[in-house]
Design a protein that fits this description.
heterodimer; A: mainly beta; six-stranded mixed beta sheet; four-stranded antiparallel beta sheet; 12 strands; globular; B: mainly beta; seven-stranded mixed beta sheet; 11 strands; 51% strand
Chain lengths: 115, 113
């Protein structure tokens, strides 16, 4: 069965510092991995995805994520945090088997960037 | 621009009443999904559809139903609302590629008193 874990409910980082939001996954077959961001009272917005190829994936708003197969991780990173990055971040996985189009989401990590 | 819209955005109802949340997308996507978001649980899948006349149960489908009579719409019905169904509900859609991302609506906040 597919699942993702986000071990940190809350991450605080100072503006200008690098940030990391952690995600580990469990899936049968090849994983399709996604990061989404949610601002207050809004729907989820797609940030980036890993399907295959280069382990470092670049996405929207300067975010990137590193796929690590041996550690089954897909951590979200940004070199320099902005106050406007403060939001709720979700990791998600889709199993590689045929027909499995739905995503399984983690419980979310609230990122707060401190000015 | 293509979009996905949910209505109503906010609703308060009473225990035992039937409630329908609407979802309409203009992406012409075959795949549509309903999730609920609750603190500590993230997003959990309620029902999903891969095309017209196709519906499938997700991990928390009890007390909910959906129907897919056309490509654009997937209404979610709570047959007899319960307080445990107080939540924020999100509709999403995606294309047929497994690599395709989901596009989400703005959410419907439902309170069951």
């Amino acid at each position: 069965a597919q699942s993702v874990a986000q071990p940190e409910d809350q991450v605080n980082v100072a503006e200008g510092n690098p940030l990391t939001v952690k995600c580990t996954y469990s899936v049968s077959g090849n994983p399709y991995l996604f990061w989404y961001v949610q601002y207050p009272n809004r729907g989820l917005q797609f940030l980036l995805k890993y399907i295959t190829g280069d382990n470092l994936v670049k996405g929207s708003y300067g975010f990137e994520a590193e796929f690590n197969k041996s550690q089954t991780s897909f951590h979200l990173k940004k070199p320099s945090a902005l106050v406007s990055d403060s939001a709720l971040y979700f990791c998600a996985v889709r199993g590689g088997q045929t027909g499995a189009n739905n995503l399984f989401f983690g419980t979310g990590t609230r990122l707060t960037v401190i000015p | 621009d293509a979009e996905i819209t949910q209505s109503p955005r906010h609703k308060i109802t009473e225990t035992g009443r039937q409630v329908t949340l609407a979802c309409h997308q203009t992406w012409n996507h075959n795949n549509m999904f309903w999730y609920r978001q609750d603190l500590g649980h993230g997003l959990r899948l309620i029902h999903y559809s891969y095309g017209v006349q196709d519906t499938n149960k997700g991990e928390v489908s009890d007390g909910y139903s959906v129907s897919r009579s056309n490509t654009e719409d997937l209404p979610l019905t709570l047959e007899s609302a319960a307080s445990s169904q107080t939540s924020v509900y999100f509709c999403a859609s995606s294309g047929t590629r497994l690599s395709g991302e989901l596009f989400f609506g703005e959410g419907s906040r439902l309170t069951v008193l």
